[in-house]
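tool_call: predict_structure(chain=1)
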Amino acid sequence: MQQFVRVRIKTKTGVKKVVAAGLVKRRAEEAAPFLETKNRGTMSSPFARMLTQRWKIHDHIGIAAVALAVCLPTPANAQSQDKSVIGQWRLTTVLDSSEISALDDAQANKMIGQVLRIGADRVQLGNHICDAPGFEVTRAETDDYLYQHAHSLAENLGLPNPVTVVALGCMDVYKKPPGKLVVHWKGVFFDAVRGIAQRKK
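tool_result:
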């Protein structure tokens, strides 16, 4: 059964109590007979002295590792991944654009019908390929996020609030259930549906 020991670590803001893995405690207990001998002033065995020093080093390493884990700052906006968007998506409509975009109206309309292929290792939209997508996910208040990150308004996008945004690297996709995405690429927002339209026979 795993054993634990509480370690007190002094920081600038005070003393923190941390539950450390039982490794430190077990090593201290195993070395206890030799430590007791040393305290009585009869620590004459070279092997005993060597073993005691060895355990002390390991104990210090263990405590230092715990202290490092506690003192390192945790990112305020720690993000996870969302790979549920992997698949093929067909662009169906131009919804809106950011204040500044790399596509004009004619270029954006030509993208309708293009297939966005999102894979674990790359993203492809038409002839444009992006490698190593991050799939970093953010859940945020829709209006605020679009204003701050896309310099746009949410009123024409039909997104839920809050919205889930998946950053792929070269574009962002906004989850719009059921089975839809809003794709933000080169400053233009496109509606997209999962799958490829079947050809008429």
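agent: The CA atoms of residues 86 and 149 lie 23 Å apart. Proceeding to next step.
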